[in-house]
Amino acid sequence: MSTEETAADESAAVEVEAVGVDEIVRQERVRAIFSAREDCREKRTKAKNHLSVGESQSWSAVYRNALETYLREVEPLFAQTEAGENYWNEMAFGVVDLRPQYAEIPGSNKTGKLPERMILDDSPLEIRLGGLRSLFEIDTPVQCAFEVRVDSKRLGRGNTVKTATVERHVPIRALDGMYSAVNSYLAEIGFGIQVDQAQQNTKLDDDLMQEVKQWQRENL
Hints:
Layout: H1 3-52, H2 58-78, H3 82-89, E1 92-97, E2 126-130, E3 142-151, E4 159-168, H4 172-188, H5 191-200, H6 202-219
Antiparallel strand pairs: 1-2, 3-4
């Protein structure tokens, strides 16, 4: 091979590397978003199936964890528009209701929510979910202890004070609202098409990644 041919090949390789790596980074990011969305969709379906037959609220946490991953992947996109900032910081997605139930009071055999007049301390009775970012600002699950006044079982004693410890997960309805909001926003900015293309081009991207890795092994 002549010197001119070698130089031309090297120049072409460098150009292909620069363009290819940038494209791979972009496609990898799109594909990561697509993967997080699909995982979130699957976890949502499983959570709803389990909760529909009365199984543990822990499935709500599984769905929430998948949604948090999805949100982290798309977070930079919400800072690019005013609408995105509203989704992220302001949009209302409901509340986490912290009001104690009779079943959470030691020794109680009643059911239903405790009347507010029986709650003695000033702990908040609900947590407002304002903006998608709020999902990262509360615990999984939320735990809170309330001092409550209940009727005494002993004759001659009007009432007694007990501690009711509550444990609450973000409601499925609120998680669904957030999941829907993310998908709607991506569609608004035209990103949904890119996500679908990333799915269709997965094989092409994998081949391109292998070519770049091979070139790096041979030339770097």
